[in-house]
């Protein structure tokens, strides 16, 4: 999405990336529903494909990918007060989504047949969640980096799955693992880099 936005001449290619991410999220949701693959596997395939496609588009015709390196690695120092406000608004939106749709999202994820029998449109519940994740990932990729975000999408949930005895513990442990990893990364970067 960033590469397409840059080729199209956008001053801020992030919004092209958001649009691309929404399309990819809907496609991801469709593929996940049509295959027997685990979500983690489909996430890995889609993220690898997106990165490879971005590199291909950016370097097509002899172009250079170096201007996009910050999106892979991230630059926490590029966070401005305006971007902090945007991040806070995104957090509020995700919390509202989680608060209003938690039961439907959970039932759709845990027991799709039961959710369908209760009148929940499983595809659109999953699509809404996938789009929310795609927007968060895309907008925060300049600060955190795509490589770290991919790890934060999979590893905290995978670790919590092994420890949790119920869904509340699963969510809490996933969130704590992600926050601890993020803070530990920042502290390590600060103290090792100085």
Q: Your description of this structure?
A:
The chain has helices at 2-7, 14-34, 39-59, 69-73, 81-110, 112-117, 122-144, 146-163, 167-193. The radius of gyration is 18 Å and the shape is globular. The chain is 81% helix and 0% strand. The model has no long low-confidence stretch (mean pLDDT 79). With 194 residues, it is mainly alpha-helical. It has nine helices and no strands.
Q: Could you write a compact summary of the structure shown?
A:
The chain is mostly helical.
Tags for this entry?
single chain, 194 residues, mainly alpha, 0% strand, globular
Write the layout of secondary structure elements.
Elements: H1 2-7, H2 14-34, H3 39-59, H4 69-73, H5 81-110, H6 112-117, H7 122-144, H8 146-163, H9 167-193
Helix pairs in contact: 2-3, 2-7, 5-7, 7-8, 8-9
Counting DSSP H or I runs of 4 or more residues, the number of helices is 9
Strand content: under 5%
Poorly predicted segments: none
- Tell me the distance between the termini: 34 Å
- The overall strand count is 0
Question: For the CA atoms, what is the radius of gyration?
Answer: 18 Å
- What is the 3D shape? globular
Biggest pleated sheet: none
What structural category arises from helix and sheet content?
A: mainly alpha
Mean pLDDT: 79
Helix content: over 70%
State the order of secondary-structure elements, H for helix, E for strand.
HHHHHHHHH
């Amino acid at each position: 999405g960033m590469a397409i936005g840059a080729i199209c001449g956008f001053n801020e290619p992030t919004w092209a990336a958001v649009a691309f991410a929404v399309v990819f999220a809907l496609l991801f949701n469709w593929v996940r529903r049509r295959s027997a693959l685990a979500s983690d596997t489909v996430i890995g395939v889609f993220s690898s494909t997106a990165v490879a496609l971005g590199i291909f588009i950016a370097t097509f015709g002899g172009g250079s990918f170096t201007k996009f390196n910050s999106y892979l690695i991230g630059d926490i120092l590029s966070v401005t007060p305006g971007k902090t406000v945007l991040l806070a608004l995104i957090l509020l939106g995700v919390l509202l989504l989680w608060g209003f749709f938690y039961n439907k999202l959970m039932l759709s994820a845990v027991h799709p047949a039961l959710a369908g029998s209760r009148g929940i449109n499983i595809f659109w519940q999953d699509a809404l969640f996938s789009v929310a994740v795609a927007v968060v990932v895309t907008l925060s990729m300049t600060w955190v980096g795509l490589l770290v975000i991919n790890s934060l999408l999979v590893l905290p949930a995978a670790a919590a799955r092994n420890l949790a005895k119920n869904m509340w513990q699963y969510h809490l442990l996933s969130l704590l693992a992600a926050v601890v990893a993020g803070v530990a990364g920042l502290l390590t970067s600060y103290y090792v880099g100085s």
